[in-house]
Prior knowledge:
Chain A has six helices and no strands. By secondary structure, chain A is an all-alpha fold. The two termini of chain A are 28 Å apart. By secondary structure, chain B is mostly helical. Chain B has a domain of 65 residues. At the A-B interface, helix 1, helix 2, helix 3, helix 4 and helix 5 of A face helix 1, helix 2, helix 3, helix 4 and helix 5 of B.
Amino acid sequence: MGRQLTAFLAGVLFAAGLAVGGMTNPSKVISFLDFFGGWDPSLAFVMGGAVLVYAPLYSFSRRLRRPLLEEKFFLPTKRDIDVRLVVGAALFGFGWGLGGFCPGPALVATASLASSALIFTSAMVTGMVAFAVWEGRRTPKQ
Amino acid sequence: MTEFTPLASTIGGVLIGVSSILLLVLNGRIAGISGIVGGIFHRDTEDRWWRASFLAGLVVGGIAMFATMPQQFAPSPMSTMWLVVAGLAVGVGTRVGGGCTSGHGVCGMSRLSRRSFVATMVFMAVGALTVFVTQHTPG
């Protein structure tokens, strides 16, 4: 129960950060990526602010043997730069520049009931489900 | 062209950083939105509940923010057809590439992950190229 509550509260805080930072305005995202037009560098400050908090506290957290509410840390283990990483990131970048939404802000913006957010997010979740089905078929059931 | 908002954006970033470090220190998880949400749909997932709780938090947070700061929300300027294409590309791309702006961009780069540096450079570059084509070429 505790870990569900902390996950929920982290989600609320994350949504607040995205909205305050300007990520839920697709025009702002498009302006951020528009180096050849009226470039708006604001969103670099979102990433900068987040990294400024996360990076030092992450290295500090390495001293903990385990997180407070779980048996262990669940950290990524992959190290190699493979085709999937590059192709996936490129596909994501294309969709991000095209629609002006990345996953977090798209989900948060559904709360506004704006049709563009609902359409984008429905398509995005469809893509994620399709991936899960494809992964499930590729790896035989244990 | 949108207004330059360094202060509000830095505050937003700090809130995201605090949320992400809490999820790590309390739940031991990386705050990567595409991974958290995408993981809900996998057949063998045993940890759906914290993922669904985080997602619920995002939406409830969105409702609260829309009620208090509606000016922070705006529709996308793209047509329905392009929004569908963009959404599918983001959904599939983030899952194939193992992360998005949060997982690779914030958490991964903070962890000095080489994979995340490469992914972030690629999605920024392709995003900029896409915007160049949609905003500065005719038709």
